[in-house]
Amino acid sequence: MASGGTETFPDLGKNCQHRDCNHLDFLPYICDGCQRVFCSEHRSYKSHACAKSNLSRKVIVCQTCSMSIETTGYVGQDEDAILEKHHKSGNCDPTNKKKKTICPVKGCKEILSISNTSTCKTCHLKVCLKHRFPSDHACSRGVSASASASAADGGWKNFLSCFCFKTEQQKRP
């Protein structure tokens, strides 16, 4: 039972290979530097003093064009030199900078993201959750809220009339 697990399930889990830990972990991490098994507490390069920790990746973002630049291959160069090289390369185009989209409803300054965006089913406009209903964002293609409500009520009444019982007067010819 040296590699981990329990008596019933000997292949279940692994023991942390940190010299002071040896914790049985059922979701162990394998270090991509030294290929050893660690628990969640010792999984980082720093926590287990990995000798091959130079595999970490670092990315800087250009403030001009919002492009991500990986700095892994630039050993010994500082970030300013890497950004200067990027600016001179011709790949830095300020027109490619992504602007944050905001809700198009007048007076609303909500920034639209994946979690707070709703697309209107009638006009296909992307708005924030506060303005997701057609009446809240002055829907251009949709019918007014009162007209749609009255149409819905009429449809419901027609549906119920099929199942209603007839009164005694209506039964007699």
TrEMBL record:
One Gene Ontology term, aspect cellular component: cytoplasm
UniProt xrefs under Gene3D superfamilies: AN1-like Zinc finger
Its source organism is Phaseolus vulgaris (Kidney bean)
> Which key words are in the record?
Metal-binding, Zinc, Zinc-finger
What are the recorded GO MF terms, alphabetically? zinc ion binding
Query: Residue ranges of the AN1-type domain?
Result: 10-58, 97-147
**Role description:** May be involved in environmental stress response.
Protein name, please? AN1-type domain-containing protein
